[in-house]
Amino acid sequence: MDQDTLRILLREAVRETVAEVLQTVLELDRTAFLQVHGGRRNGYYPRKLETAFGQVDLKVPRDRESRYYPAFLKPYVRRLVDVGEVAVALYAAGVSQRKAAEILSLLLGHHYSHETLSALTDEVLEAAGAFRTRPLPEEMAFVYLDGLSLKVFREGEGIVRESVYVALGIAPNGERRVLGFWLLPTESALGWEGVLGELWQRGLRRVLLFITDGLPGLPEAIRRVYPQAEWQRCVVHGVRWSLSQVRARDRGLLAEDLRRVYGAESREEALGALEEVKAAWGSRYPGVVGLWVQDSGAFLRFYGYPKVLWPYLRSTNLMERFIREVRRGTKVRDHKFPKEEAVYKLLYLESERQEGRWAERKLKGFSEVKEVLEKMLQERYAPRTQTLTHNS
Fold this sequence. Notes:
Layout: H1 3-37, E1 41-51, E2 54-63, H2 83-92, H3 97-108, H4 114-121, H5 124-133, E3 139-154, E4 158-170, E5 176-184, H6 189-201, E6 206-212, H7 218-225, E7 230-233, H8 235-244, H9 248-262, H10 267-281, H11 286-294, H12 296-299, H13 310-313, H14 317-331, E8 336-337, H15 340-360, H16 366-381
InterPro entries: Transposase_mutator
Family: Belongs to the transposase mutator family.
Keywords: DNA recombination, DNA-binding, Plasmid, Transposable element, Transposition
């Protein structure tokens, strides 16, 4: 393939990438506008924009009241010139700063170093700081806690692994919200207790159920900050660990027997299935069976809530989907971050992107049981509402 053909292919690839990123920014911009000003979506109208790589076709979102217009598109202007907006959009889409600098240099005919792009995207830090400290609703039906490990550069230490703590909440009506994210040296129950204390201070006072993995000490940390909340241990994590502890030939049968426990139609039926697991596997794998028997209350806590919600409550799958999107953004950044602020930029932009999507699609089933969940919150917290305080 000759050089001219390669250039043509590169220009076309970049043009398509820019069009895709700009369309994403348009969608997020309208969502943000409607969240602040209210109103309803009203389709799109076509808009052409000239770039150094040729024309891109966009679908500009509209609202019913005709009050919305994209923040980064000026009326009647048909050429893209806002470097800062595009830099942030590229970064949010998972494009590394070096690659974004190359794209902008080709797109606008001017050289942009990755240091320049870093300075442009640093403007996001102020918004990220506001996001991380924003007041929270007083109550959430369910809160997921989980973490991931990232490589971060620290002065004098080089590249080190640090833990990102993430809290995700679901309101009684099914609305999802990223409650916060924190960067700490390691994941520990003590670290989570500090995170929970911050959630309390920011206004979150009533939670029905926390859903987490089996990190030692975490249930006790939850009880110290939210003594009236319940704890659900993630069934998926429990099954994965259990299967990793048994012989390969036994994994299929054990997985089926465990599925009869957490897939039962009632708590009583689940406990009966657990007795069968104990009889069948207890002598061969006492550690595995002991875990399920000892923590049966935590594994089966979801049975105390409306059946339509069981798939959401017995695992941290909703949180894991969010973390997968974060990890997708880390892959194009060579799996390491030049400084702590870069982690916060990525998490903030991903949180904003996901919350924009969630605003359009509430979780199924919650509309049916919203009043039930609100009543559960009222009954659980009403007796001590006037006296309960937290001094962490």
